[in-house]
Amino acid sequence: MASSSPSSSNRQPEYDVFLSFRGEETRLNFTSHLLKALKDPGINVFYDEETLKMGEELSPALLKAIAEAQIAIIVLSEGYASSSWCLRELCEIMKRYTEEQLIVVPIFYNINPSDVRNLRGNFKKSFDEHQRKKPAGDVEQWKGAFAKVADLKGCHIVGNSYRSESEHIVTIVKEVRDKLKSKSPSSHSQKLVGIDDQKAKIVSWARMDQIRTIGICGMGGIGKTTLAEAVYDEVSSDFHYHCFLYNVRENFEKKGRQSVRNEFLSSLLKHDASSLSNLVLHCKRVFVVLDDVDEPNQLEDLCVEHFGLGSKIILTSRDQQVLRNGDAKIYDVTKLNEDDSLKLFSKYAFKQDNPIADFRYLSNMFVNYAQGLPLALKVLGSTLLSMPKEDWISEMDKLKKFPEKKVFDVLKISFNGLGELERNIFLDVAFFLKGKNRERVTKILDSCYKCNVRSAITKLGDKCLLDISTPDNILWMHDLLEDMCWNIVRQESDDPRKRSRLRGLDDVQLVLKDDKVTDSVKGISIEIHEPPQFCPADFEKMTNLRFINLYPISWSAVNAIISDNWNDDQIFLSDELCYLHWRYYPFKSLGSNFSPKNLVELRLPRSKVELLWSGDQNLQNLRVLDLQLCSKLRKIPNLSTAIHLEELICTHCHSLVEFPSMKRLTSLKRLDLKNCLSLKKFPEFPSHLNVLDLTGTGIEEVPDSIGDLLQLRKLSLSSSSLINVSSNLSKLESLTDLELRGRQITEFPEIPKNLSKLCVAWTGIERVPSSISWRDKLQVLDMESTRIQNLPSSIIELEALKVIKLFDCTRITNFPNFPEKIEEIYMNNTSIEEVPSSSISRLKSLKKLVVRRCRRLKSLLGLPPYLETIAADECRLLQTVSFMDQDPRTFQLKRRDLIAFKDCVELNGDAINNIVANTLLKIECITEQLVERSTVESTKVLVEKKHSNWIRREHIKEKVYETSYHKVELVCVLPGFQMLEQFEQLHGNSSMAVELDPDKCSSGLLGFALCIVVRSFVKCAKCSCKCQLITRSGDCHTFIHNFTPTIFGGGGNARYIVFDHNMLHEAMPYVEASFQVQPNFAQLDCVGVRVFYMDADRIRRKVQLSNDFESSEIFLTEEDIGQTGSSGSEEDQRNFSPDNGYEPEPNKIKTIFSLLIEGLQRTLQKVFSLCEGKMEQEDA
């Protein structure tokens, strides 16, 4: 998000509002009150007694004022028409209104609007008088203007009304402010990019009574000030007293607290505040923005706590703790997405919204470098403006080593405010620990600095230098902050040997090859692209080394490291090491002199290590030992002193035959011995173990000691060698996830009572005991490729069961009675012959039914109509398919709906029609819910999409539209090669045009679905459809729809019904739709389309009525009430909402009552449904 100063050519209007009124009648009462209410929030009003100078002619001054105003408010009182001067004003106002250069707001003050329209009563008398004294042409113009203003929507004020004049004035002023905002965007908002959603969120907070202080937080350059400016422009007019104080931190440093306080309060209150009492502030309702606050006491010095009731304070800061001290509701500013980043960059680099074609690739490189940081995008774009391409390339090369100074200086402000410990931790994370779990990082750095660093990491997060709120508790930082850290370390010395941290093979090799000892270097992190030019003995020179992160990323580097050249070398590692991660470590051990006393994490994946160390070692700090894929490792050393070890990972250590006792490792939570093929004996484990994976080991028996692992949550025991499992397994009350695989397991295991996931796939189990019903917490049951025949009837009692997998259980012949709340059923390649209606109709929560390749299946009856997935491909005997009736209100919108009956060659005509009807029903339900969710008319967004023609090897980028609806997709696959009768076949195999009804398209919603008949395709086939919608004026809107037939089964001779969110379009006068389908590695027979129209406004009114009845409020749209809008086309005028005094006609009253009755019926239906459900529960 960014803003720039407005062009000098964009002159601001001198007046916001022109106020026209009959002075003798309203000057001292209504009009004076209205004038004050307009001026209080800062609206500039032309009022004849205050703005005209002595001696100035009246008529030219008034004409100038009307021409410069944005809104005209006409106070039509009983004597208004008696003044020829008022009528001349009115003519000029309505002339500019007709030219759409002025918004007109009539106020019918104690008069009847119909008398104005029809020139009755005193108005007729006034015009009769003018007819006798004034030129006939002038009077006719006045009459026309007078009649026209009566047709405009405005405010009707009646003396005996239930609303007071002050209430009407509040409404008028609010509408005027709203119109001024929409007509005159501020200089801050004219060139903003990517800010609208964030601004709307903060504005909504600012208008909540319960929120007083809002904190806008983020790293330097993220756009906090720009966002605050946009919110200020939107909200400040709601307050009489408002002020934006920039650069609080800098001003306090330069001017001192007292000076800043006096300047701030004087600017806010518009008078000298040097001796102001705090009691005065308690009476002031203010709106202030304090930009770049970095100390809590700054809020006290600026008297924030003394502002009156209803005040709003917005703070921007890089420090969340400062905002928390100010009791602020905190909003974290997000970086720009890729599209907005490119747009903002282009505004500064090219002075337009998109890059020049020849510079697009380079532009994307700079945008990727900036990573959504607005400051960097603006600075880089401004720097590159008008530069030739060669200089762009040079600038990018320079940035890799020397960051842009303006960006660097802004980012470094937060770093400069850190203490020594926080600075070191920040640099360590940037060089070695970015992207790692916070708990892991804390333990590593605790050992490194010999103190608890948790609060220091929290402080870095508060200052927006680290992101500590990511999923999975991962520490992260912006790429430009990472670059800043590298530059800070580079500035420590020109000599790499004197720097604290090294990152880069050239610098590391320079230091290692030097003969001198260095204790400056604390860590190295290297991506090795090529064979290294140093030897292992060189590490001995780095006596203070705490971090090693060495990972080859090319095969030439890997081969050089694991070659025999290094095998016999002796490595010397610093005893200060806290973190060692060396992929493809080439040595047999860590060295005879190495002491791992400070080591927290040791990770040597894919190494050639055979024995880590000899003898007993002090391992009290060791937390993680990762030796996966160490194929030569035969023995794990004595770990008895590793009392804090939490993870031990030895997967694929094929030579590992011996494991020490781990009974004393009371902190061990995870042990992974997956595919340790030579491990035959079940090891001794500590009772606190949480996760144990013994998949693929040579273990044949699980002993009774398994019952001691009382905290075990996940156990994997899949092995072809496994024969016997102890019954003590059932004692593991903490176990929730159990996996047992192995053909030699023939008996269903005794499982713990709290198990939620059980996998016994690929076993020799033939029978499921009826006692399984006792496991009432079981949610997932996987029995794929077992020998079971039919499930026991007690399976229905597993009330928590959500997913059951019975793939390739070929002995199952009957569709079981599943629990009612089951959501997913997988019965591929079973021997069932039917899915009875009585069984399937009970399953109210079912989302997925997969019965592919059930070659005996003949019927699917009474299917729930709104399943997310129905997959019955290759059921070659399937003949009949039917769906049960279900209330459309139970339909739930999903990301993807699949209905697949490919290669069901025996399906009869009724079955095909039922499936198609169900598909069209789901399309209708999806359409209604998309419209309901959008709440307002859907918009179209122009985006760049790439689509490919693989046969021609072309990759085409094209600007196409995306609708703003929630993204959804529906695909139905049917056998056959003829066009479905419900679709209109296009002329030609892959392209056609369809005529549309522009009137229906303009007033409602246009939708379409495609039917694509595919003859054959291969595994990588893809299809794309380009849809072009043509309007009456010839405008063309292009949409791209992609689908992959191979996802839904391979082969050919299939018919695909395709629908997605981009196939819905609102309120445009489209006259034609053309479709062009481009198959890649597929052969099409024909393409068809089904066009439909729906009333989107009706759907939204229905939702609004339903919501309002639930909240005991009734909402009627302008169309429902039937109010007549203005004859003009000015959008701002049509939306002006104060009542103009019209009375609804009888037929419109009928519309209102029909809507009320419809809403009441829906409410009563909900009540009856709730009562019926309660009665059923009581009967049960």
Automatic annotation (TrEMBL):
Cited SUPFAM superfamilies: L domain-like (SSF52058), P-loop containing nucleoside triphosphate hydrolases (SSF52540), Toll/Interleukin receptor TIR domain (SSF52200)
Start and end residues of each stretch annotated as Disordered: 1120-1146
Top-level taxon in the UniProt lineage: Eukaryota
GO molecular function, one term: ADP binding
Domain TIR positions: 13-180
Record's keyword terms, sorted: Leucine-rich repeat, NAD, Repeat
GO biological process: defense response; signal transduction
Protein name per Swiss-Prot or TrEMBL: TMV resistance protein N-like
Natural source organism: Durio zibethinus (Durian)
